[in-house]
Design brief:
Blueprint (H helix, E strand, L loop, with lengths): L25 E2 L5 E5 L9 E2 L6 E2 L4 E4 L7 E2 L4 E11 L2 E10 L19 H10 L12 H11 L3 E6 L8 H8 L1 H15 L3 E7 L3 H14 L4 E6 L8 H9 L14 E5 H13 L5 E7 L7 E6 L4 H7 L9 E4 L6 E3 L12 E5 L18 H5 L6 H10 L2 H6 L10 H5 L6 H63 L1
Parallel strand pairs: 1-14, 9-10, 9-12, 10-11, 13-17
Antiparallel strand pairs: 2-8, 3-5, 4-7, 5-6, 7-8, 13-14, 15-16, 15-17
Helix pairs in contact: 1-2, 1-4, 3-4, 3-5, 4-5, 4-7, 10-13
């Protein structure tokens, strides 16, 4: 079906995805060494449960979940060399280095022959134990998200297949080749979160994937599942715009989708859930797009978690030219990498090995000409030129008043700005300053609260001492009076 999309702003961009939109997924051989980052992209680190010199099997638990970190499993069989540090998409993280023995001996699997007989809490527990995380990029624990949705009583599960950012096409390849897994994962997650229906959202430029999903949906005969075909507009794949496009409900910028009865998951996450319940094995690999003019053969590859980027490039024929830039993610929201030693994490969906022709340097920044293009392009309905002026002036109150917190940092305003002003960078820095001010405000409030509590304790202590003194004087007077009477 085609959705009545509620779309505000956004851009129609050259996807840079041909011929990958037709090429099959290549399953890579396991690397000689994997670097299993304890922070897989959520911001928290898991707690190691192995030690250097310990033998592990493929799928063995090597780190336990903590905070927003998921359980982490060995993606090769072999020996733990060390627990050191590595560079990830978010910076530095501790990591477990495992040297492969080349045998790929699996840890004993725990298959589920009838997942439909399981209660929602048991399904969620198994997903947590398998280390499944959001594979769209954020790597937030899938189990936590489903549990929160179950508690909130959501009505609608929304699977995000709207892979709108240029260069990235791993989800499109997965939907094209493993549509049955996406549909099975949707059914399992419906049982886990208690929602009554599920919509798989996909853009209209992915015709092969649309056909594959339609076939898979017809094969299930599950009327709770439907397909929403959306215009290929960036950044429609972002959570807020996607919910608005499919349901017509707007998620508050300081809220989350369950507030409007929706829980969002990525299609690759759904496929990982399906693999868990079909094979009984944890998440140890993911599909990654490796592309750009700097690599000889662009490809969508299924790589083990912890595989260094250099191994992905080698598997794609090596470097075709000295890369101008290495980017993890898409060209608008991706992160620049310092080294090709960066390992694949659960949130690592694309590597752009870019030459200057792929991602030309930004031109010299010029003054704003007040053209308004950025405001037309903003999917959040903001006024980027006004926000930029306030950010330069350090006007925190003005930034809050004009809704800086609603910015999703999609980069649309940067893309259309004729003056080459780095607007998104300016907003990110301003938001950081606002966050710091909020932290300082809270500290000041806490300090004042501590001071006031201390003053109350001193006053109560002084009052208690005064009363004790008065009581002692009273008793002394009574004793003196009694002596006089005798």
């Amino acid at each position: 079906m085609s959705a009545r999309a509620v779309i505000r702003g956004g851009l129609r961009l050259d996807g840079h995805k041909h011929p990958l939109d037709e090429a099959p997924i290549r399953i890579l051989r396991p690397p000689a060494t994997v670097l299993l980052a304890l922070d897989q992209g959520s911001g928290d680190e898991a707690e190691p449960v192995v030690e250097p010199g310990q033998a592990v099997r493929l799928g063995s638990l090597v780190a336990r979940r903590r905070g927003t970190a998921t359980d982490l499993h060995a993606s090769v069989s072999g020996t733990v060399r060390e627990i050191g540090e590595c560079t990830t998409l978010r910076g530095r993280s501790r990591c477990i280095v495992v040297d492969s023995d080349g045998r790929d001996d699996w840890e004993q699997a725990c298959r589920v022959t009838d997942w439909g007989a399981l209660q929602a809490p048991e399904i969620i527990r198994r997903i947590a134990d398998a280390g499944v995380a959001g594979l769209g990029g954020a790597a937030f624990p899938t189990a936590q998200k489903l549990e929160l949705a179950l508690i909130a009583g959501v009505e609608h599960l929304l699977l995000n297949g709207a892979e709108c950012e240029p260069w990235i096409c791993c989800d499109a390849a997965l939907m094209r080749e493993r549509a049955g897994d996406v549909v099975l994962g949707a059914q399992v997650m419906l049982a886990a979160c208690g929602a009554g229906r599920c919509t798989i959202a996909i853009e209209d430029d992915k015709q092969q994937a649309i056909a594959a999903l339609q076939t898979a949906l017809q094969a299930t005969g599950d009327e709770r599942l439907s397909l929403a075909v959306l215009p290929a507009v960036y950044p429609l794949g972002a959570e807020g715009p996607l919910v608005a496009a499919v349901t017509g409900h707007e998620v508050p910028h300081d809220g989350w989708p369950p507030q409007v009865g929706v829980v969002c998951q990525n299609v690759a996450t759904a496929a990982a859930v399906a693999s868990l319940f079909r094979e009984g094995r944890p998440l140890v690999s993911r599909v990654v797009t490796v592309t750009g003019s700097g690599v000889r053969v662009s490809a969508n590859v299924e790589a083990r978690i912890g595989t260094p980027l250099a191994d992905l490039v080698d598997a794609c024929g090596g470097y075709a030219a000295t890369p101008h830039r290495l980017v993890a993610g898409g060209s608008l929201t991706g992160r620049a990498l310092d080294s090709d030693a960066t390992p694949v994490t659960k949130g690592f969906n694309c590597a752009i090995v870019a030459t200057a022709a792929d991602l030309p340097p930004r031109g010299a920044e010029m003054p704003c000409i007040r053209c308004g293009d950025c405001a037309y392009a903003c999917p959040a309905g903001l006024l980027p030129q006004q926000l930029h002026r306030l950010a330069q002036a350090g006007d925190s109150d003005g930034l809050k008043r004009l809704g800086l917190e609603a910015c999703i940092e999609c980069g649309c305003c940067d893309y259309v700005c004729p003056s080459a002003i780095p607007l998104t960078e300016s907003f990110r820095a301003a938001r950081g300053r606002l966050d710091l001010q909020e932290v300082e405000r809270r500290r000041a409030v806490e300090a004042r609260s501590r001071f006031e509590r201390h003053q109350r304790r001193l006053a109560e202590q002084a009052e208690a001492e005064r009363r004790a003194f008065e009581e002692a004087r009273r008793r002394a007077r009574e004793a003196g009076q009694a002596g006089t009477d005798r």
